[in-house]
Design a protein that fits this description.
The chain is mainly alpha-helical and 298 residues long. It has twelve helices and three strands; from the N terminus they run H-H-H-H-H-H-H-E-E-E-H-H-H-H-H.
């Protein structure tokens, strides 16, 4: 097996999930151990069955600490799930793998102040500034995944009705609303001196373009987010394009949005996935309460 499927997964984790360098290196080690284990037995890691995966998991449980096993199984389960989503594999051999006992980590949103500082810090006096402002407003205003934002075409915009058609996992489409701030940013980007100034000889219908006039990649989006955060003086630890999705969901729930509305907006198949953000919103509320209420410390 070439290293390409493994590295593509790690790159996806970095860009879409905003995983730290330390986490990516740990996942790389965990997955390479699985690859070596399969190779030693003359098996292609991409052809392992459920029983073989379970056998490997049992070997880990007998040789490593619970926390290390939990992390390794999370990496393995995530990798095979990614391969199924990308249609490299038809079936997920980890579907029956017993879940790790370690608690699920909560998403880490940015504060409302940090999001505003990053967006408002972008000058809109040039095509790249207009693009970045519209890009950040789209990430935060719609809660769309990075890959979904990169896939938006001009035909997906209906600014008269103030909606954007977003294509998510499994080519499922949904309409997301366009708020006032996003509408202003898109109008500025689509006006003369904005997107049209980025177009190269090769025309494309994609909404967001890079400086060469080509469709903006997921990596390019993440670079924009980090660069604009740095320019705004916002600490870049935990800042990623995907953090804007977390922030959209968490801030809406904190301001009273119904969880099913947020589920529809984010394109979650299960409401249980969305309810994780409810816990984040409650945790944020508790922290702010302890900091602000005069009798919280008595």
């Amino acid at each position: 097996m070439s290293a390409e499927p493994l590295e593509e997964y790690l790159q996806w984790l970095a860009v879409e999930r905003g995983r730290s360098r330390a986490t990516l290196e740990a996942y790389r080690r965990d997955l390479r151990r699985l690859v070596e284990w399969a190779t030693e037995r003359g098996r292609d890691p991409l052809a392992l069955g459920a029983e073989e995966i379970e056998r490997y998991a049992n070997a880990l449980r007998s040789a490593q600490a619970a926390a290390s096993v939990a992390r390794a199984l999370t990496a393995i389960r995530g990798w095979y799930g990614f391969l199924v989503d990308e249609r490299v594999l038809a079936e997920d051999p980890t579907a029956r793998l017993a879940p790790s006992r370690r608690g699920r980590s909560l998403p880490k949103p940015l504060s409302e102040e940090a999001v505003v500082a990053i967006i408002e810090g972008v000058p809109d006096d040039g095509p790249l500034g207009r693009r970045d402002r519209a890009l950040l407003e789209t990430l935060y205003g719609t809660g769309a995944r990075v890959s979904e934002v990169c896939g938006i075409d001009l035909a997906d915009l209906d600014l008269d009705e103030e909606v954007i058609r977003v294509t998510g996992k499994g080519n499922k489409q949904r309409l997301v609303p366009v708020g006032r701030s996003l509408r202003r940013a898109l109008d500025g980007y689509l006006a003369p001196g904005g997107r049209s100034s980025l177009l190269a000889q090769r025309r494309t219908d994609r909404l967001f373009l890079n400086a060469r006039g080509e469709p903006l990649s997921r990596q390019g989006v993440d670079l924009v987010v980090r660069r604009r955060a740095l320019a705004a003086g916002v600490p870049t630890r935990g800042v990623s394009a995907h953090a804007f999705r977390h922030s959209c969901a968490t801030h809406m729930l904190a301001h009273g949005a119904d969880v099913r509305t947020v589920q529809e907006l984010l394109g979650h198949a299960s409401i249980a996935t969305t309810q994780v953000y409810t816990a984040v919103a409650v945790t944020t509320l508790q922290r702010e309460y302890r900091e602000a209420h005069p009798r919280a410390h008595d």
